Amino acid sequence: MNSPLADRLRPKTLDEIVGQQHLLAKDKPLRRIVESGTIPNMVFYGPSGVGKTTLASIIAGISGKRFCKLNGTTASTSDIRDIIAQTSTFSGSKGILLYLDEIQYFNKKQQQTLLEFIEDGRITLIASTTENPYFYVYNAILSRSTVFEFKPVAPAEIAPAAERAFEAFSLDSGEQFELEEGVIHTICAGCGGDVRKAINAVETCCLCAQDKNGKRFVSLESARELSQRSAMRYDREGDEHYDIISAYQKSMRGSDPDAALHYLARLLEAGDLASACRRLLVCASEDVGLAWPQIIPIVKACVDTALQLGLPEARIPLANAVILVATAPKSNSAESAINAAMEDIAKGRIGPIPRQLQNKHFDGEDAQVKGQHYLYPHAYKNHYVSQEYLPDNLRGTVYYHPGDNRSEQQFQAYWDKIKNPER
């Protein structure tokens, strides 16, 4: 019983793996590949504790190849050379299956070292990563591999594994355990889709169980305490961080206050007040914008209040602002307009500034037109006079297209009347 319970219960066959049915159910491509015995280079992408290492171990047993394992956080270039050296030995004559865990921590040079041997088949690579491989894995490795995405396991799928864990601990310890109703569900719901974390929680619950009527009693309260906050997957440098803040803004943009509050709660639970505030400010300008421009100072005031209060009270002004942004009318006309203007600048569509808009300059003898001839709008009726403001080569260019909301339509109607009085 010295090894962790999760290691003792590690699945030995494909059918024992919990979850990942989108990859391992009967007739799914990955299962057919594994059962064929001919293993290609693969990259397993997904969160911790969902079966990546377990599946690699099972594949190694099926393939008949020599199995080697490295971890990107600790392995060095010399470790890679040692494995490469084995390709010319009798034990490596059938090829080597290298499982490279956390490949994102290997630098480009280390990954390149493997290329020649992956190319000719002497090494079959199964790499795993918790980060998006298209950002962290060298392109030459990706082009020679197939990426399979692993997903967090649903609580209902974890439940049988948790039950087996209680049974296994009971058998190993020689003690009987009585579980209060709801213990299994609480552990499975609190592990954030991580099977290993659920089994570790089972082991901890068993260790702190109280004696009751000749049995060891695991209370619901104990299960809650030992699995609290476990459902939060959050790394401020990882994919989950960007997924949450993306979902947060998209929910506000999509006018779903309930979803927006959910993602706000996840950010605040992780203590990421800065991201919650920043995306709120962005959303107020980018997604509500000119449909209700007054929302921008309102949201700014809520953010300032939240930052002054700090957590946990900051949740209140932020909740007000999130609901306000989510339920407000939407317009991205300003963002679209500035993007179009910046695209022109990037393409070199600039042109000289019209003479009447320039700062006052001395007119030399070669000046064809003397004087600036700027028309001051406030000197005219309705504070408007027609004159050209864009460079000549951009004359007639339109960047801003009013949204179909009431605010922008009212402004458009006003200026149509002023600029085109004959209509």
Would you mind describing this structure in some detail?
- By secondary structure, the protein is an alpha/beta fold.
- 48% of the residues lie in helices and 9% in strands.
- The chain contains 20 helices and 8 strands.
- A hairpin with a 2-residue loop joins strand 7 and strand 8.
- Helix 10 crosses helix 11, helix 14 runs antiparallel to helix 15 (257-269) and helix 16 runs parallel beside helix 18.
- The chain starts with a helix and ends with a helix.
Question: Topology of this structure?
Answer:
Blueprint: H1 5-8, H2 21-24, H3 29-36, E1 42-45, H4 52-63, E2 66-71, H5 77-85, E3 96-101, H6 108-113, H7 115-119, E4 123-129, H8 133-136, H9 139-142, E5 146-149, H10 155-173, E6 177-179, H11 183-189, H12 195-207, E7 210-212, E8 215-218, H13 220-227, H14 239-253, H15 257-269, H16 273-288, H17 295-309, H18 315-327, H19 333-346, H20 406-419
Parallel strand pairs: 1-4, 1-5, 2-3, 3-4, 6-8
Antiparallel strand pairs: 7-8
Helix pairs in contact: 10-11, 10-12, 11-13, 12-13, 14-15, 14-16, 15-18, 16-17, 16-18, 17-18
List its salient traits.
about 50% helix; about 425 residues; five-stranded parallel sheet; alpha/beta; flat; three-stranded mixed sheet; single chain; 20 helices
Low-confidence stretches: none
Could you give a short account of the major beta sheet?
5 strands, parallel
Q: Portion of residues in helices?
A: 40-55%
Strand content: 5-15%
Radius of gyration: 31 Å
Number of helices: 20
Total DSSP E strands = 8
Neighbour order of strands in the largest sheet: 2-3-4-1-5
Distance between the termini: 88 Å
Secondary-structure-based class equals: alpha/beta
**Shape label:** flat
Mean model confidence by pLDDT: 86
- One letter per element, helices H and strands E, the order comes to HHHEHEHEHHEHHEHEHHEEHHHHHHHH
